[in-house]
Structure formats: C-alpha cells, structure tokens
Write a structure and sequence with these properties.
The chain contains ten helices and 17 strands. By secondary structure, it is of the alpha/beta class. The chain has two domains: 91 residues, 2-Layer Sandwich (Alpha-Beta Plaits); 329 residues, Peptidase S8/S53 domain (Rossmann fold), CATH 3.40.50.200. Helix 4 runs parallel beside helix 7, helix 7 packs parallel to helix 9 and helix 8 crosses helix 9. Bound molecules: 2-acetamido-2-deoxy-beta-D-glucopyranose (NAG) (3 copies).
C-alpha cells in the first residue's frame, strides 16, 4: 500500500456556489438607499409628457415632497424605481403616504417596505449533543481539526440511498437516533441466528459498541435527541456477530450478508491487540472478503472499512492484523483532537488514512448515540479508540457513494489516497514513487469529507485490476551476524510487466516463511526502486514467540 505508483491525474474540484452566496456583487457608484423599514415606500414612477426637460430624479423628489417624504434615490439598477422615506420631523403630518402615492398620476406602483425573513443556510440541528461533536465541527482555533463535512451536507449530500452495515455486537435499532435510519433488510443476528441484531444485555454492560458505531454513521438529525451522524441521510444496518463464539464460517457469512443491500461494512474489531498475536481472516473469511469486492454492491464491490487496532501501547503493529493488511479493506487509524497519534493507535505500512478519535487524558472522545439498555442513557461522550475512527470513515464513504454510486472498491482507495491531507510534521512522512506522502502512523493522511466528495464527483474509474506474481524466491542463507541483515532482490523486467498488462502499481503483498528463534527480533522491510521503505514486519514488543511469521 505504501508503495503505490500510478500516473498523476488532475482533480478538478467542482465548486458550486452556496445558496446564501451573493450572486451579484454590486459595483455601482449609486448611493445605497436606506431608511428605517416601516417608514419607507418603494415606488415605480411613470415618465409623464408634462415632465419635459426634468429628470427622473427630480420627479422622485417632487413626488416625495407631495407625500411628505424625501427621496433616497434610485433602488439599485432598477430604472424608475425609487425609495421614499418619511421625513422624521413631520410627525404631525396629516398626509397618509400610501394614499397620496396611490392617487398620484406619476406613480405606477408603490409598496410599503416590510422586513423579509431570511435565514442563512448554515447547518443547525437541535440535537443537544451536536455542539459537542468536535470531530464534525471543531469550534476550537486549531485549524482544520475536524472532518470538514458541513459544506457537504449543505449541498444535500448526506449519504441518501447508501446503506452502511455495522458488523459488531448488535445495534439497538429502537433508539430514537437509530430507528429513523435503520435498515432491517440489511441486518442479521449471527449469534442467535435470526434477523434481529438487537444487542443483548451482558454482565459487563459492554454490548453498547455496535450501537455507538451506528450512531456515528447515521444518527438522525434534528430529533432533539443526542447527536448527529456523519452520513445522517444514509441507512444503517447491523450484523450481530461479536457477542459469542466466532468462527471462520460466521465471519464469512457476515462479510457477504445482504451484500446487494449493504454498501459499506464497518468493522471496528480484529485479532487481539496484545503485540503478540499474528492473525487475520482464515480461509473462509478471506474468500468472503474477496468475493465481496467482486460480487457485492452489484459488482462495484463491497467497501470494507476496518479499524487499525488499539495495541499501540504494546507496540502492536497493524501489519500483523490480516484484516488491516488485506488489500480488500480500507484500513483506518486514529488521531486525537490535535491531530496526533494517540498512545493506543497502531502503526503499519498498510494504513490507508486516519480520522478522529479519543486521545490521552484531557482530550475529548467521540460523541455519539449509545444503547439505552442496562444503565446507559442512549447518548455518550465517551466512544474511544480506533473503533470510533472506522465508523466515521465508513460514514464519509457513504457520502462519496451518494455523490457517485458507481465508484468501485478500488476507486474509493485511490480517492482516499489522493485527498487525504498531511498535517502532522512529526510523523514519519515519506514520499513514494508516485509523489504521495505516506506515514506508517497516519497512512496517506487525514480524511476530509469535503475533499473526498468533490473528488468522487469527478473521479475517472481506475483500470481493471491485474496482478503479477513473482516466482517463489528461496533464500537458503542465514542472516549473517554482521551486518545483521539479509537482502533479497526481485527484479521485475519490463517485458514481464507488459505481459501482465500492469500499468500502475497499487498494492504489494508479500508472503514470507522465515525460521527464527525469536520472531519479535525480526524486522522485514520492503524497499522500492523509488527509495520508499515500508516496514512490513515490525520488531515487536511481544512478538517474541518462536512462531514462523507468515
Ligand atoms: C433543524 O430544526 C430547526 C428547527 O428546530 C431548523 O431551524 C433547522 O433549520 C433544522 N436544521 C436542518 C439542517 O434541517
Ligand atoms: C472545508 O470545506 C469547505 C467547504 O465547506 C471548503 O471551502 C474548504 O476549503 C475545506 N477545507 C479544507 C481544509 O479542505
Ligand atoms: C537485479 O538487477 C540489478 C541491477 O540491474 C543487478 O545488479 C542484480 O544482480 C539483479 N538481481 C537479480 C536477482 O537478478
């Protein structure tokens, strides 16, 4: 992933004028007529034959005087239209302006000015926690530290027509914030084998996770309850699969469940983040991911958004998580409200991008719906971890799919690559051969809903997926004591590339079998001709078991 190499496309951002934008900037030298509303009349004058020699301005002055008013000049560029104002110090004047004007031979039309009610088209919601949703609209001065979504909503892109499914421990779809957008046709309960993914109360009061994720995506707006989802016009389904023993076949069923209804699969879970587990989808889960991108969403491919994992404090690395390092998934990591990598966030070469979540103490967490079963209120300010980042990304993908339903699963990855923004200068940014900055901490950068949707609108689909596989490279040498490093080179010839039909390099997938007494002491680095380095097998805090790294 870190070594993408494709020709540069130019993105033209389509800028449409916001509806409250002044359409015409008046550059007229005319004085703007003003006077107090209620004391002003607009008139249209008739140029009579008797006005020979005079001007319209003079006629306006004359009409005004006759009605006990004064002329404040022509209204804008409207020829013959004048604003007349009541003279303040003639309070006891018996003349009624409306009557005088109505009877005047040179007045074609007149109207007393009133106050027009016009609201700026800014997004306001009456959901009580909306003002606390800093990840949607940051009111702090830190520039750009939100997902920049309001401009997208103002253009009526809210995820309408798109369904996001939360694969998790259930979704409380009866909740006020979930019910209006709930999609029962996309839902299923694999733990109880029935169509209803309602979470079950548990001894640890813990099965709120899926409902919180669902709220981040599609919490209903303006219902005076809790918060607002990123894609509040989308529909949200739930697949309950994490509340009980999970098998490979259950995972496979989950990944393809109702895949012509569900467009985006939001998965905020993975293997243990203990810094020693190397695991991922097993054969059926793997096959289901691949089948999903081929057959799901009418062939455009299901979008699988996965969280990179919360094992940062154990030095866990998401390349050891087979869901995160699959080419079929959008791997999303977290940054805190200051745009920094939080202590729990993992790093890896397969990180595609990051979005907001909780940080250390004193930093805010994600505000979203919550289940209302057991001791909870249906609303929380405490959703945390990369678990909270992935659903925000899934919601942003829903916005993109409303703008362009025909984007393929690979288009989505490309657009993220193009539009994510680099901001944290402390991260380990490296520029790849195609000119994109990538960091193992932040992937290609911070997701920005405005940029994603605008790019989606004009995106040209990427060519068909082709792959090119090396022969098995065997290395019989042991790693020498000095320089403590073994380098394996694979030279790809131009002829071989031509034969494969490959034009651009999108993903590199490496499978290795290495025998070593301490797995955690081993580091595997992919080095590209451009000089880009990807740490695909990190030295590990806990990766010290004598298990061959696959
Ligand atoms: C939400 O409702 C309020 C009235 O309660 C209204 O003023 C506002 O425009 C609504 N917002 C949206 C985005 O529909
Ligand atoms: C955020 O969105 C607004 C439109 O609402 C756009 O004008 C602005 O450039 C965007 N900012 C960034 C940093 O992308
Ligand atoms: C790969 O190419 C380089 C430079 O052309 C050459 O030095 C090297 O021997 C080649 N390696 C293999 C394994 O063919």
């Amino acid at each position: 992933m870190a070594s993408s190499l494709f020709p540069l496309h130019v993105i033209v951002f389509v800028l449409t004028l916001p509806s409250a934008h002044p359409l015409l900037q008046l550059s007229s030298p005319l004085p703007a007529p003003t006077c107090e509303p209620g004391h002003s009349w607009a008139v249209q004058l008739r140029w009579g034959l008797e006005q020979e020699g005079g001007s319209l301005d003079e006629l306006a002055n004359q009409v005004a005087r006759e009605a006990g008013m004064e002329s404040h000049g022509q209204i804008g560029h409207l020829n013959g239209h004048y604003l007349l104002c009541r003279v303040q110090d003639e309070e006891g004047d018996p003349r009624v302006p409306g009557e005088v004007l109505g009877a005047h031979p040179n007045v074609l039309w007149h109207s007393q000015e009133g106050i027009l009610r016009r609201a700026k088209r800014a997004m306001t919601f009456n959901d009580p926690q909306y003002p606390s949703q800093w990840h949607l609209v940051s009111l702090r001065s830190v520039h750009g530290m939100d997902i920049n979504v309001t401009g997208v909503w103002e253009r009526d892109i809210t995820g309408a027509g798109v369904t996001v499914v939360v694969v998790d421990d259930g979704v409380q779809h009866t909740l006020e914030d979930i019910q209006p957008n709930y999609c029962p046709e996309g839902s299923y309960d694999l733990n109880s084998n029935d169509p209803d993914p309602m979470p079950h109360p548990d001894t640890r009061n813990d099965n709120h996770h899926g409902t919180r994720c669902a709220g981040e995506i599609a919490a209903a707006p303006n219902n005076s309850f809790c918060a607002v989802g990123v894609a509040y016009g989308s529909r949200v389904a739930g697949i309950r699969v994490l509340d009980g023993p999970l098998t490979d076949s259950m995972e496979a069923v989950a990944f393809n469940k109702h895949y012509q209804i569900n467009d985006v699969y939001s998965c905020s879970w993975g293997p243990d983040d203990d810094g020693r587990t190397v695991d991922g989808p097993h054969p059926l889960g793997k096959a289901a991911l691949q089948h999903g991108v081929i057959a799901g969403r009418k062939g455009f491919g299901s979008i699988f958004v996965v969280a990179s994992g919360n094992g940062g404090q154990y030095n866990d690395n998401c390349n050891y998580d087979g869901y995160a390092n699959s080419i079929y998934t959008v791997t999303v990591g977290a940054v805190d409200e200051n745009g920094r990598k939080p202590f729990y966030a993992e790093e890896c070469a397969s990180m595609l991008a990051v979005t907001f979540s909780s940080g250390g103490r004193h930093l805010r967490s994600i505000v979203t719906s919550d289940w209302s079963l057991q001791h909870a209120s249906g609303c929380t300010e405490g959703h945390t971890g990369t678990s909270a980042a992935a659903p925000l990304a899934a919601g942003m993908v829903a916005l993109m799919l409303q703008a362009r339903p025909c984007l393929s699963w690979r288009d989505i990855q490309h657009i993220i690559t193009y539009t994510a923004t680099r901001y944290d200068t402390e991260a380990d940014w490296e520029m790849n051969g195609a000119g994109f900055h990538h960091s193992h901490k932040h992937g290609f950068g911070l997701l920005n809903a405005w940029r994603l949707v605008n790019a989606a609108k004009v995106w040209e689909s990427v060519p068909f997926l082709v792959s090119y596989q090396s022969p098995i490279l065997k290395e019989l040498e042991t790693i020498p004591a000095y320089p403590n490093k073994l380098t394996l080179t694979w030279n790809v010839t131009a002829a071989a590339l031509r034969q494969s039909g490959m034009q651009t390099l999108e993903h590199v997938s490496v499978t290795v079998t290495i025998t070593h007494p301490r797995r955690g002491n081993l580091e595997i680095v992919l080095l590209c001709p451009s000089g880009m380095t990807s740490l695909i097998g990190a030295r590990g805090g806990g990766h010290e078991w004598a298990v061959p790294a696959q």
